[in-house]
Amino acid sequence: MKRLAFVISSLGAGGAEKVLSLMSHYLAQKGISLTLISLGDSKSFYPLPAQAKIIALGECRSSKGVIDSLFQNLRRIQKLRQALRAARPDLILSFMTETNILSIIAAKSLGIPVIASEHTNYLWQPSRLWNRLRHLLYPLASATTLLTQRDKENHYGFLPQAKILPNPFDFPPLSLTPKEKIILGVGRLIKDKGFDRLIRAFSRTSIGDYQLLIAGEGEERVRLEELIQSLGMEEKIHLLGSQKEIYPLYERASIFVLSSSMEGLSNALIEAMSMGCAVISFDCPYGPSEVITPQENGLLVPLHDEVALQEAMERLIQEEPLRQKLSQNAPKVRERFAIDRVMPQWEELMRSILDSTPSCSKES
Hints:
Blueprint: E1 3-8, H1 15-29, E2 33-38, E3 53-56, H2 66-87, E4 91-95, H3 97-108, E5 114-117, H4 128-137, E6 143-146, H5 149-155, E7 163-164, E8 180-186, H6 195-203, E9 211-215, H7 221-230, E10 237-241, H8 247-252, E11 253-258, H9 267-274, E12 278-282, E13 299-301, H10 306-318, H11 320-329, H12 334-337, H13 339-355
Parallel strand pairs: 1-2, 1-4, 2-3, 4-5, 5-6, 6-7, 8-9, 8-11, 9-10, 11-12, 12-13
Helix pairs in contact: 2-3, 3-4, 6-10
Protein backbone atom coordinates (compact mmCIF):
# COMPACT_ATOMS: atom_id res chain seq x y z
CA MET A 1 0.00 0.00 0.00
CA LYS A 2 1.37 3.37 -1.06
CA ARG A 3 -1.49 5.76 -0.37
CA LEU A 4 -4.05 5.81 2.45
CA ALA A 5 -6.87 8.25 3.14
CA PHE A 6 -8.36 8.81 6.59
CA VAL A 7 -11.85 10.31 6.71
CA ILE A 8 -13.21 11.79 9.94
CA SER A 9 -15.86 14.33 10.93
CA SER A 10 -13.40 16.65 12.68
CA LEU A 11 -9.85 16.90 13.97
CA GLY A 12 -10.89 18.13 17.41
CA ALA A 13 -10.33 16.82 20.94
CA GLY A 14 -12.02 13.43 20.80
CA GLY A 15 -11.11 9.77 21.19
CA ALA A 16 -11.38 8.91 17.49
CA GLU A 17 -9.31 11.98 16.61
CA LYS A 18 -6.59 10.87 19.02
CA VAL A 19 -6.57 7.41 17.44
CA LEU A 20 -6.22 8.97 13.99
CA SER A 21 -3.24 11.00 15.23
CA LEU A 22 -1.48 7.89 16.57
CA MET A 23 -2.22 5.75 13.53
CA SER A 24 -1.15 8.45 11.08
CA HIS A 25 2.23 8.94 12.78
CA TYR A 26 2.84 5.19 12.85
CA LEU A 27 1.95 4.70 9.18
CA ALA A 28 3.83 7.82 8.02
CA GLN A 29 6.98 6.37 9.56
CA LYS A 30 6.39 3.31 7.36
CA GLY A 31 6.57 5.54 4.29
CA ILE A 32 2.86 5.50 3.44
CA SER A 33 1.52 8.65 1.79
CA LEU A 34 -1.37 9.94 3.90
CA THR A 35 -4.33 12.17 3.11
CA LEU A 36 -6.43 13.24 6.10
CA ILE A 37 -9.91 14.38 5.10
CA SER A 38 -11.93 16.27 7.69
CA LEU A 39 -15.61 17.02 7.09
CA GLY A 40 -15.03 20.13 9.23
CA ASP A 41 -11.99 22.41 9.36
CA SER A 42 -8.27 21.67 9.29
CA LYS A 43 -7.46 22.71 12.86
CA SER A 44 -6.17 19.68 14.76
CA PHE A 45 -6.12 19.30 18.54
CA TYR A 46 -3.63 16.42 18.32
CA PRO A 47 -0.32 16.47 16.40
CA LEU A 48 -0.35 15.15 12.84
CA PRO A 49 2.56 14.08 10.62
CA ALA A 50 4.12 17.03 8.81
CA GLN A 51 4.12 15.11 5.54
CA ALA A 52 0.39 14.27 5.68
CA LYS A 53 -1.91 16.22 3.37
CA ILE A 54 -4.93 17.65 5.19
CA ILE A 55 -8.13 18.39 3.25
CA ALA A 56 -10.90 20.25 5.10
CA LEU A 57 -14.32 20.04 3.45
CA GLY A 58 -15.89 22.70 5.70
CA GLU A 59 -19.15 20.77 5.90
CA CYS A 60 -19.59 20.02 9.59
CA ARG A 61 -22.26 22.53 10.64
CA SER A 62 -25.46 21.37 12.33
CA SER A 63 -28.47 20.97 10.06
CA LYS A 64 -31.67 22.95 10.55
CA GLY A 65 -34.09 20.18 9.69
CA VAL A 66 -34.65 17.05 7.61
CA ILE A 67 -34.46 18.78 4.23
CA ASP A 68 -31.40 20.79 5.19
CA SER A 69 -29.76 17.62 6.54
CA LEU A 70 -30.45 15.78 3.28
CA PHE A 71 -28.91 18.49 1.10
CA GLN A 72 -25.99 18.97 3.49
CA ASN A 73 -25.11 15.27 3.34
CA LEU A 74 -25.41 15.24 -0.44
CA ARG A 75 -22.89 18.13 -0.49
CA ARG A 76 -20.62 16.23 1.86
CA ILE A 77 -20.72 13.15 -0.38
CA GLN A 78 -19.98 15.24 -3.47
CA LYS A 79 -17.05 17.08 -1.85
CA LEU A 80 -15.73 13.89 -0.30
CA ARG A 81 -15.85 12.10 -3.64
CA GLN A 82 -13.93 14.97 -5.26
CA ALA A 83 -11.29 14.87 -2.52
CA LEU A 84 -10.90 11.10 -2.84
CA ARG A 85 -10.62 11.28 -6.61
CA ALA A 86 -7.83 13.86 -6.24
CA ALA A 87 -6.00 11.89 -3.53
CA ARG A 88 -6.31 8.53 -5.35
CA PRO A 89 -5.76 6.41 -2.22
CA ASP A 90 -5.36 2.66 -2.37
CA LEU A 91 -7.57 2.37 0.70
CA ILE A 92 -9.85 4.51 2.88
CA LEU A 93 -10.09 4.24 6.66
CA SER A 94 -13.11 6.14 7.97
CA PHE A 95 -14.11 6.87 11.56
CA MET A 96 -17.55 6.78 13.24
CA THR A 97 -20.99 5.81 11.96
CA GLU A 98 -22.16 8.80 9.92
CA THR A 99 -18.75 9.44 8.35
CA ASN A 100 -18.42 5.72 7.57
CA ILE A 101 -21.72 5.77 5.68
CA LEU A 102 -20.79 8.89 3.71
CA SER A 103 -17.39 7.39 2.87
CA ILE A 104 -18.89 4.12 1.62
CA ILE A 105 -21.26 6.03 -0.69
CA ALA A 106 -18.58 8.46 -1.93
CA ALA A 107 -16.02 5.74 -2.62
CA LYS A 108 -18.31 3.20 -4.26
CA SER A 109 -18.17 4.51 -7.81
CA LEU A 110 -14.43 5.18 -7.49
CA GLY A 111 -13.68 1.54 -6.75
CA ILE A 112 -11.73 2.38 -3.59
CA PRO A 113 -12.09 -0.12 -0.72
CA VAL A 114 -13.27 1.27 2.63
CA ILE A 115 -12.67 0.15 6.20
CA ALA A 116 -15.54 1.46 8.35
CA SER A 117 -14.26 1.76 11.91
CA GLU A 118 -16.58 2.20 14.88
CA HIS A 119 -15.20 4.00 17.94
CA THR A 120 -18.17 3.78 20.26
CA ASN A 121 -20.90 1.21 20.66
CA TYR A 122 -23.95 0.69 18.47
CA LEU A 123 -26.32 2.31 20.97
CA TRP A 124 -24.60 5.70 20.76
CA GLN A 125 -26.30 6.44 17.41
CA PRO A 126 -29.93 7.31 18.27
CA SER A 127 -31.14 8.09 14.73
CA ARG A 128 -33.34 5.42 13.14
CA LEU A 129 -32.37 6.68 9.68
CA TRP A 130 -28.61 6.44 10.29
CA ASN A 131 -29.05 3.01 11.87
CA ARG A 132 -31.06 1.86 8.85
CA LEU A 133 -28.33 3.16 6.55
CA ARG A 134 -25.74 1.37 8.67
CA HIS A 135 -27.57 -1.93 8.11
CA LEU A 136 -27.88 -1.26 4.37
CA LEU A 137 -24.39 0.08 3.63
CA TYR A 138 -21.92 -1.45 6.08
CA PRO A 139 -22.08 -4.78 4.17
CA LEU A 140 -20.70 -2.84 1.18
CA ALA A 141 -17.54 -1.84 3.06
CA SER A 142 -14.48 -4.02 2.57
CA ALA A 143 -14.29 -4.39 6.35
CA THR A 144 -15.98 -3.06 9.47
CA THR A 145 -14.10 -2.89 12.75
CA LEU A 146 -15.64 -2.83 16.22
CA LEU A 147 -14.11 -2.37 19.65
CA THR A 148 -15.82 -5.05 21.74
CA GLN A 149 -17.13 -8.57 21.36
CA ARG A 150 -20.32 -7.74 23.29
CA ASP A 151 -21.17 -4.94 20.86
CA LYS A 152 -20.80 -7.36 17.95
CA GLU A 153 -22.83 -10.10 19.60
CA ASN A 154 -25.67 -7.81 20.69
CA HIS A 155 -26.05 -5.54 17.66
CA TYR A 156 -24.16 -6.70 14.58
CA GLY A 157 -25.93 -9.92 13.71
CA PHE A 158 -26.45 -8.38 10.25
CA LEU A 159 -22.66 -8.19 9.83
CA PRO A 160 -21.07 -11.44 11.05
CA GLN A 161 -17.82 -10.63 9.23
CA ALA A 162 -17.22 -7.54 11.41
CA LYS A 163 -13.79 -7.68 13.07
CA ILE A 164 -12.84 -6.81 16.65
CA LEU A 165 -9.80 -4.55 16.49
CA PRO A 166 -8.70 -2.35 19.40
CA ASN A 167 -7.42 1.19 19.25
CA PRO A 168 -3.64 1.63 19.50
CA PHE A 169 -2.04 3.47 22.42
CA ASP A 170 1.38 5.10 22.59
CA PHE A 171 2.00 4.68 26.31
CA PRO A 172 4.76 6.71 27.98
CA PRO A 173 7.11 4.95 30.39
CA LEU A 174 5.44 3.90 33.62
CA SER A 175 6.20 6.54 36.25
CA LEU A 176 7.59 5.71 39.69
CA THR A 177 6.43 9.07 41.04
CA PRO A 178 4.36 8.63 44.24
CA LYS A 179 0.64 8.98 43.68
CA GLU A 180 -1.24 11.95 45.09
CA LYS A 181 -4.63 12.15 46.80
CA ILE A 182 -6.44 12.74 43.54
CA ILE A 183 -9.50 11.09 42.03
CA LEU A 184 -9.55 11.74 38.28
CA GLY A 185 -12.24 11.76 35.59
CA VAL A 186 -11.48 12.34 31.92
CA GLY A 187 -13.81 12.95 28.98
CA ARG A 188 -15.99 15.42 27.16
CA LEU A 189 -18.38 17.31 29.39
CA ILE A 190 -21.52 15.81 27.90
CA LYS A 191 -24.47 14.12 29.57
CA ASP A 192 -23.51 10.56 28.61
CA LYS A 193 -20.18 10.84 30.46
CA GLY A 194 -22.09 11.05 33.76
CA PHE A 195 -19.87 13.58 35.51
CA ASP A 196 -22.89 14.87 37.44
CA ARG A 197 -23.20 11.43 39.04
CA LEU A 198 -19.49 11.34 39.81
CA ILE A 199 -19.64 14.80 41.40
CA ARG A 200 -22.64 13.92 43.57
CA ALA A 201 -21.12 10.61 44.64
CA PHE A 202 -17.79 12.26 45.46
CA SER A 203 -19.52 15.00 47.48
CA ARG A 204 -21.03 12.34 49.78
CA THR A 205 -17.78 10.44 50.21
CA SER A 206 -15.61 10.49 53.33
CA ILE A 207 -12.81 11.94 51.23
CA GLY A 208 -10.28 13.30 53.70
CA ASP A 209 -7.69 15.23 51.70
CA TYR A 210 -8.70 13.81 48.31
CA GLN A 211 -9.66 16.11 45.44
CA LEU A 212 -11.69 15.33 42.33
CA LEU A 213 -10.19 16.59 39.05
CA ILE A 214 -12.14 16.36 35.79
CA ALA A 215 -10.27 16.92 32.52
CA GLY A 216 -12.36 17.74 29.47
CA GLU A 217 -14.55 20.38 27.90
CA GLY A 218 -18.09 20.46 26.59
CA GLU A 219 -21.64 21.66 26.68
CA GLU A 220 -22.30 20.53 30.26
CA ARG A 221 -19.63 22.78 31.84
CA VAL A 222 -22.00 25.47 33.15
CA ARG A 223 -24.41 22.90 34.61
CA LEU A 224 -21.56 21.03 36.28
CA GLU A 225 -20.12 24.24 37.71
CA GLU A 226 -23.52 25.10 39.16
CA LEU A 227 -23.78 21.60 40.66
CA ILE A 228 -20.35 21.92 42.28
CA GLN A 229 -21.35 25.30 43.75
CA SER A 230 -24.69 23.99 45.04
CA LEU A 231 -22.84 21.19 46.86
CA GLY A 232 -20.30 23.60 48.35
CA MET A 233 -17.43 21.64 46.79
CA GLU A 234 -15.54 24.42 44.98
CA GLU A 235 -12.38 23.69 47.00
CA LYS A 236 -12.52 19.95 46.35
CA ILE A 237 -13.74 19.55 42.76
CA HIS A 238 -12.03 21.23 39.80
CA LEU A 239 -12.93 21.25 36.09
CA LEU A 240 -9.61 21.48 34.26
CA GLY A 241 -10.78 21.87 30.64
CA SER A 242 -9.23 20.03 27.70
CA GLN A 243 -5.69 18.77 28.27
CA LYS A 244 -3.35 18.05 25.36
CA GLU A 245 -0.91 16.34 27.73
CA ILE A 246 -3.16 14.05 29.74
CA TYR A 247 -0.65 11.45 30.94
CA PRO A 248 0.88 13.70 33.67
CA LEU A 249 -2.57 13.73 35.30
CA TYR A 250 -2.78 9.94 35.22
CA GLU A 251 0.71 9.81 36.80
CA ARG A 252 -0.49 11.93 39.73
CA ALA A 253 -3.92 10.37 40.30
CA SER A 254 -4.36 7.54 42.80
CA ILE A 255 -7.88 6.69 41.60
CA PHE A 256 -9.59 7.03 38.22
CA VAL A 257 -13.37 6.87 37.81
CA LEU A 258 -15.30 6.19 34.61
CA SER A 259 -18.89 7.33 35.16
CA SER A 260 -20.21 6.97 31.61
CA SER A 261 -23.63 5.63 30.64
CA MET A 262 -22.09 3.95 27.59
CA GLU A 263 -18.68 3.62 25.97
CA GLY A 264 -16.94 2.03 23.05
CA LEU A 265 -13.97 0.69 24.98
CA SER A 266 -12.93 3.94 26.74
CA ASN A 267 -9.52 5.28 25.81
CA ALA A 268 -9.39 7.16 29.11
CA LEU A 269 -9.92 3.99 31.16
CA ILE A 270 -7.09 2.18 29.36
CA GLU A 271 -4.77 5.21 29.63
CA ALA A 272 -5.45 5.48 33.37
CA MET A 273 -4.78 1.78 33.93
CA SER A 274 -1.57 1.98 31.92
CA MET A 275 -0.26 4.58 34.38
CA GLY A 276 -1.11 2.59 37.49
CA CYS A 277 -4.33 4.24 38.59
CA ALA A 278 -6.68 2.15 40.70
CA VAL A 279 -9.81 2.33 38.55
CA ILE A 280 -13.54 2.26 39.22
CA SER A 281 -16.09 2.11 36.42
CA PHE A 282 -19.80 1.87 35.99
CA ASP A 283 -20.49 -1.48 34.29
CA CYS A 284 -21.80 0.31 31.22
CA PRO A 285 -22.18 -1.11 27.72
CA TYR A 286 -19.75 -2.27 26.59
CA GLY A 287 -16.08 -1.62 27.17
CA PRO A 288 -15.23 -1.64 30.88
CA SER A 289 -16.16 -5.27 31.54
CA GLU A 290 -13.84 -6.37 28.71
CA VAL A 291 -10.88 -4.59 30.34
CA ILE A 292 -11.54 -4.79 34.08
CA THR A 293 -11.32 -8.03 36.05
CA PRO A 294 -13.12 -7.09 39.29
CA GLN A 295 -10.95 -7.06 42.41
CA GLU A 296 -7.87 -7.79 40.29
CA ASN A 297 -7.17 -4.71 38.18
CA GLY A 298 -10.19 -2.51 38.95
CA LEU A 299 -13.70 -2.30 40.35
CA LEU A 300 -17.01 -2.43 38.47
CA VAL A 301 -20.16 -0.96 40.01
CA PRO A 302 -23.77 -1.19 38.79
CA LEU A 303 -24.67 1.29 36.08
CA HIS A 304 -25.89 4.68 37.39
CA ASP A 305 -25.71 3.52 41.04
CA GLU A 306 -24.32 6.60 42.77
CA VAL A 307 -24.35 4.96 46.21
CA ALA A 308 -22.30 2.03 44.92
CA LEU A 309 -19.91 4.48 43.27
CA GLN A 310 -19.56 6.42 46.52
CA GLU A 311 -18.87 3.22 48.45
CA ALA A 312 -16.28 2.07 45.87
CA MET A 313 -14.39 5.37 46.14
CA GLU A 314 -14.48 5.20 49.94
CA ARG A 315 -13.24 1.62 49.81
CA LEU A 316 -10.21 2.48 47.71
CA ILE A 317 -9.43 5.51 49.85
CA GLN A 318 -9.62 3.49 53.05
CA GLU A 319 -8.18 0.13 51.94
CA GLU A 320 -4.63 0.85 50.88
CA PRO A 321 -3.69 -2.81 50.21
CA LEU A 322 -6.55 -3.15 47.70
CA ARG A 323 -5.72 0.19 46.10
CA GLN A 324 -2.08 -0.85 45.74
CA LYS A 325 -3.05 -4.25 44.30
CA LEU A 326 -5.25 -2.69 41.62
CA SER A 327 -2.59 -0.08 40.88
CA GLN A 328 0.10 -2.74 40.38
CA ASN A 329 -2.05 -4.97 38.16
CA ALA A 330 -3.65 -2.28 36.01
CA PRO A 331 -0.58 -1.51 33.81
CA LYS A 332 -0.76 -5.01 32.34
CA VAL A 333 -3.20 -3.52 29.81
CA ARG A 334 -0.09 -2.23 28.03
CA GLU A 335 0.57 -5.76 26.78
CA ARG A 336 -2.79 -5.82 24.99
CA PHE A 337 -3.16 -2.27 23.67
CA ALA A 338 0.35 -0.93 22.96
CA ILE A 339 0.71 0.55 19.48
CA ASP A 340 3.43 -1.96 18.49
CA ARG A 341 1.05 -4.78 19.38
CA VAL A 342 -2.11 -3.33 17.80
CA MET A 343 -0.96 -1.70 14.56
CA PRO A 344 0.38 -4.91 12.99
CA GLN A 345 -3.20 -6.23 13.29
CA TRP A 346 -4.47 -3.20 11.37
CA GLU A 347 -1.73 -3.55 8.77
CA GLU A 348 -2.63 -7.20 8.24
CA LEU A 349 -6.28 -6.24 7.70
CA MET A 350 -5.27 -3.59 5.17
CA ARG A 351 -3.03 -6.03 3.29
CA SER A 352 -5.75 -8.67 3.15
CA ILE A 353 -8.22 -6.17 1.68
CA LEU A 354 -5.81 -4.93 -0.97
CA ASP A 355 -4.79 -8.48 -1.87
CA SER A 356 -8.44 -9.37 -2.48
CA THR A 357 -9.40 -6.13 -4.33
CA PRO A 358 -9.06 -6.49 -8.13
CA SER A 359 -8.42 -2.80 -8.75
CA CYS A 360 -8.37 0.36 -6.68
CA SER A 361 -8.61 4.10 -7.31
CA LYS A 362 -10.34 3.77 -10.65
CA GLU A 363 -10.83 6.89 -12.74
CA SER A 364 -14.44 7.95 -12.65
